[in-house]
Design brief:
The chain is α/β, with parallel strands linked by helices. The chain has helices at 48-53, 63-68, 72-77, 81-85, 97-102, 129-139, 157-179, 199-211, 228-238, 256-264, 274-280, 312-316, 319-327, 331-357, 361-371; strands at residues 5-11, 18-24, 27-31, 33-35, 59-62, 91-94, 107-110, 113-117, 124-127, 143-145, 188-193, 216-219, 248-250, 269-271, 283-284, 291-292. Strand 13 (248-250), helix 10 and strand 14 form a beta-alpha-beta unit. Helix 10 packs parallel to helix 14 (331-357), helix 11 (274-280) runs antiparallel to helix 14 and helix 13 (319-327) crosses helix 14. It is globular and about 60 Å long.
Length: 378
Amino acid sequence: MPALTFELLKTCRQTGARLGIVHTPHGDIRTPTYMPVGTAATVKAMTPRELTEIGAEIILSNTYHLHLRPGEDLIREAGGLHRFMAWDRPILTDSGGFQVFSLAGIRKIREEGVAFQSHLDGSRRFISPEGSMDIQHALGSDIMMAFDVCTAYPCDHDTARDAMERTHRWAERCKAHHEASEAKERQALFGIVQGAFFEDLRVESAKTLAEMDLPGYGIGGLSVGEPKPMMYEMLEAIMPHMPAHKPRYLMGVGSPDCLVEGVLRGVDMFDCVLATRIARNGTVFTRNGRLVLKNATYARDFRPLEENCDCYACRNFSRAYLRHLFKAGEITGARLATIHNLRFLLRLMEEVRQAIAEDRFGDFRKAFFDRYDMSRNF
């Protein structure tokens, strides 16, 4: 049996949005889905039990960060990432390519791989495509990502092409190294479509990676500062060339409006640190747009963060109480806001799946944006 299979259950007759299930050794993932991000083997402010309670079916961890601390050898010794962090559901690991890209002035990309300095202690490190595979093999994630080259926004066509072609060569190296390992029986490797913001390159990248016949495909290099309509244009350009029977993962995208718009364009999987990051700063998602708890207007607002939300925070506490916690510097405020934000996105995806199943996703999308105040967006 392959390490991962994908069932496309149906497409919405109104819109073509997809409903499916990803089968992995650690359980099934209903799609479309949002994946909470646990960069350093923990979703900030959350325990695994709380993640299960709010409906998370898969989480993401990061190869770069875990390689630097505590190191993949220690995690292998602990029995792998699932056992190390006490999470028994699926895990996806990013290859580390985006994190290395973000280091900018302290890394050098060459054909062999990337030489860089650790952001923790300045030590010199090197990761090759094969090295990224070895680290992810040690971590034991269910879904691994190929090592890729991400470009900044904006960039010129030649730079984007060079990065895309190197990403393709590295994907071939990742595939060969992975298929030569025993891990291929339990871990699935996804490729990553690149090409910056040039339609011809994006289409070429999608076609090239599709020919590699990988179990799934990420879409990288978006949500890096470009206008959202540009991101949607790139998705629309590549989707006709993405294999229909493989999951499609839009990397690093997680605002409520982008989830809805991504699903409309055929995306199955999303991740982003936005939900947990803004929660720690006192901002939460609502169906009307963002709500900044530190604002004085909520000092005597005894309503929940959002009416009809079923999360622990909304069932028990008021906006006034959470504002008090943030003003007092109490860590409980960040925990409650995080619970709410993650549950908000997971519940949104539950409703999206139901709408697709009932062939009314177009109506759902319209109702969502009729209420959602984009001026209070992210």
